[in-house]
Amino acid sequence: MTTQFIEGMAVEITGEGEPIVCLHGLGGSSNNWTPVEPALANFRLVRFDLPGSARSAGVGGELSIENIAERIVQACGRLGIARAHFLGHSLGTIVCFHIAATRPGLARSLALFGPLLCPPEAARPNIRARADKARNEGVKGMQEIADAIVATAVSATTRREQPAVAALVRESIMRQDAQGYARCCDALANAQAPAIDAIECPVLLVTGDQDGVAPPQAVRAIADRLPGSRSVVYSQCGHWTTFERAHDCMRDLKDFYSGRFQ
Questions:
Q1: What's the rounded Cα separation, in Å, for the pair 229 and 238?
Q2: Which end of the chain is more exposed for a tag (fewer CB within 10 A), N or C?
Q3: Could you name the Gene Ontology cellular component terms for this entry (predicted)?
Q4: Where are the domains of the chain?
């Protein structure tokens, strides 16, 4: 494994083969993909800590989905990546959709977990309130945010049967820089849906039946706009898909890539 910093963004690179660019969600890091790494052994994994998150918290300036996407595109250029598979979770799926819609030559495929095009209008005030809490309360606020997310975005089954997963989600959020997390919340709260109807690359969409961020009916509606895409719903699973159902994610990733690209 090598780790580079490109314009302040931490980028982990492992393996050889076609590149898969991995973009985590709000409160995540490159570690969101560690549980499914065995399924990606035949690829070159390029795992980002997104601007404002984890080791990339120091990336300055206001954040938006568009400028995060542009930073990823520019970093791909710096790494000599002209075409790649994109793997995303939550906020990272919005970035993936933007890249595929605006740079179709760059995106060879999309595999998206907890996917959404943008937050529903009803959710935006709560995301902005979360940003304010992180910005104004710092570490204390981040602990309260982490506890609330574990209670609402991790399935009851996972909390009961896989307490280590619940602890991992809590730790991932609590370890975020509060100001960076607030800026990421701002980017998510202001996100606008990209024009996905022209996306022609293969797309895998995965969610949980208890995912309130990317509920199954919303994910199926996205799939209906992408001919040839495949949507999968895991039972008793919340929003942190790769942590909650790692084995199922690996199975579907292996099937997605081996069926088309190997």
A1: 22
A2: N
A3: membrane
A4: 2-119+194-260
